[in-house]
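PROTOCOL LOG
Step 1. Enter all chains and additional molecules of the complex.
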Amino acid sequence: MKITLSSYEMELVRKKLARELNEAEWLTIDALWSEHCSYKSSKVFLRSFPSEGEKVVMGIEDWQDAGALDVGDGWAIVLKLESHNHPSAIDPFNGAATGVGGIIRDIISKGAKPIALLDMIRVGNLSNPRNKWLLKNIIAGIGFYGNSIGVPVVGGELDFDDSYNDNPLVDVAGVGIVRKDKIVPSVVKEPGLKIVIVGLTGLDGLGGASFASRKLSGEDEIGAVQIADPFAGKIVLDATLEIADKVEAIKDLGGGGLVVGVTEMANGLGAMVNLDKVPLRVKDLKPEEILVSETQERMLFAVKEENVNEVCKAFEYYDYPCTVVGEFVKEPYIKFLYEGKEIVSLPSELLLSPPRFVWEIRKPRLIKSDKKPEVRLEESIRAIFSRIISKEWAYSQFDYEVGTSTVLKPGEADSALISLPNGKLLALKGDANPDLCAEDPYECGKSIVAEAYRNLASVGALGIGVVDHLQFGDPKKPEVYYSFVEAIRGIAEASKFFSTPIVGGKVSFYNENKEGKAIKPTPLIVMAGLIKDKFLRNKVVEDSYITLIGFTRDEMRGSLFGKIFGNYGEVPKARLNEDYLASQLVIDLINDEKIFFAKDINKGGLIASLFSIIVKGIGVEIRTSSIPSDSDDWIPKLYSENGGRFIVLTNDPDYIIRKSKGIHISVIGKVTKDQGVIKIDNKEINVNKEIDNYYNYLYEVML
Amino acid sequence: MKTAVIKFPGTTCEVDVYKALLEAGVESEIVKYKDFDPDKYNAVILPGGFSFGDYLRAGSIAASTETIKKVKEMADEGKIVIGICNGFQILVESGLLEGALLPNLNLRFISKWVYLRVIRFDTAITRGLNKNILKMPIAHAEGRFYLNDIEKAKKYAVMLYSDENGNVNDKVNPNGSILNIASIANEEGNVIGMMPHPERASFKLTSIMGETDGLLLFKVLRK
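Step 2. Run joint prediction.
Step 3. Record the structure below.
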């Protein structure tokens, strides 16, 4: 197995312990100190995230496996976001599937019932057969696992960019529900508890955490990928929830396997584990392999001795292995024994305090062309529309109705909406903007939070909290590290502004293509929100007024238009107050039942939002002169992606004008019955071909 | 007397069916597969999911359990047996219903809302139904009904995939089932299998048009 520790780190260990270590011990430190498990290159900056608030039940600093937010009446939701990028690049089916499994186990380890999944997928251009193969298997893998365990995939994103050619991004977010006073900790507080493991340990996923913490080598690394077994996952899910209130702590055996699970659960106390007692899937596993194997569908429980039988009975009903393998002890040493011999004996404190790094930071010198591209109206509209596609091919492979709680279906609105056991409605949305992040990671960080906040508002929900996932290249490259630090700054600022604290997150470095070029910086957030009172189910109505909320600015860099025709000008700066005011207005209008369609303006600008109306089978006409803007140019008016804006359909625009506080409201046009026709000023463009492409593109290209 | 909702390892829809039965005013309980006592119930529902992981073939392992022997006894006594999705697959695998459920023609899992035309009104769940076009979601990878005897298939068919006006054609056949068959029953009409999920069309809030056609099928179990 490969070790990723640097010689500096190895020297540090030798000095502290004043001795040489054996292989098992090096593997232990390698797993615990891996970037994946220890956040050694990111922790310093992550501390700047706002993580407190009246709704925060459990935040980042609580050292738990997931965050939790209060949703009223004694209930909390548990939120978690993770990726399986590296495994998915090598074995997309199992990589994506185990991503789902891992998230689900994180949720149940809090004693919470998983109620929703969101998946956010980014792959390279589909004209490349390998990317097609990746996407097909990623979607199949998510469906295979999510469907089998009966948790609905209620939303997500699917996007394409050449920078993900060798390194796809496969993000999965999970949401669970639990009584606030029944949340189970992931760490123990007292010695003497038994360490119980459920599930069989196999040969797959060897050194997965350290694998995820380095670059893809291009060598055969299939052994580091875990194999998904959703049936076992379902048994673990059902049985764990059955016994959740009979255990003192629960931890998923995820990255780093048993050694990391036990050490983190001990949380400074000691542990004594007999590796011979771990039930194995294959014979003759070496002790070092048992130590760091990341075989899925295993859980770790800390159990009072008198409860062990009852806990294991729930698993044995399903013929699932459940075994005591050791005990938490007072002496703060993590010890693993094999055939009576101590093969690991390391101080807990050393394992839990890896060296922290702050790498060199350098602002990249982007050579920015500033030439405004010459493009004609019709050509630009067709080009933008052809990039906007329905994701039905993907989400129709997911069982999004299981649980009978999915109120808004995938593709129906900008946010997913599910009902909770207390009768409240929970909105969820994931957002990223790699094109903007590549230009300005700080503005991008702010704007993805603002976008999620608007997305939630567009169905009538107010954001209450965020989980984030920060995906970048090699942190030791100063330009990459710059983008990482800047993105955090932006996300932290916006989350603080909107009072949507960050309750959990994940960092994924070393995302690069074969030439060593980093992916576009891709921080991603998932925001949760609650419907105030009424929610909006979008409907397009002929002859209704297309009303634009917000002010349009000549800020074209990082936009979809710029991606297609060439970047120029400024990046959009997130004016958070405008996002806030416009969102409040939209929520009010939904509750006053004054609008029947709402969509925020983001990728592709105003024109893309109009396209989402047209694809419902009607037409639109607008006047560019009615669009309030700091420019007379039609390009920013149609394609700028600056925030703070929504399109709504209404019969009563005057009402909206009366209601608005300090936000521009303008009637820019009407919904017409000319199916597939968009009329801008006096120019009519028939886009029925683009509408066909919208509905059929993925079905055709993925055949 | 009550309706039993059976939970096999890997079943995912037992709570949804239970909730829908509650909504329909049917007394029911979820029963784990090893604990099932058929004498306590006058009807049994095998809900959807992936029983025993659907390893081998969908429904095949569950079909050979002691639990299904007990379900057979109930069927023979004329009690009502309903299999939904994976439950339908189990009924077919166990021989309680004829035919087979093959992988969808496009070889993908399909989750979507469909229209169903009811053509048999002599089964336990369609008796007295005053609506002949229903809307419900499907979600399955192996739902292509097949039976090599076409006359028998016609005789057994309870619901067909259709458009919203009840027209039955290839365009609205989501999985390639013969004759667009979505649901069949035995001759007596007390054993019914269906691929669509009525429990998912039982709640106003989560039904896409606010219609609750699923409840119409469950209401017959009200005693």
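Step 4. Note key features.
Chain B has a mean pLDDT of 96.
Residues 66-76 of chain B form the longest helix (11 residues).
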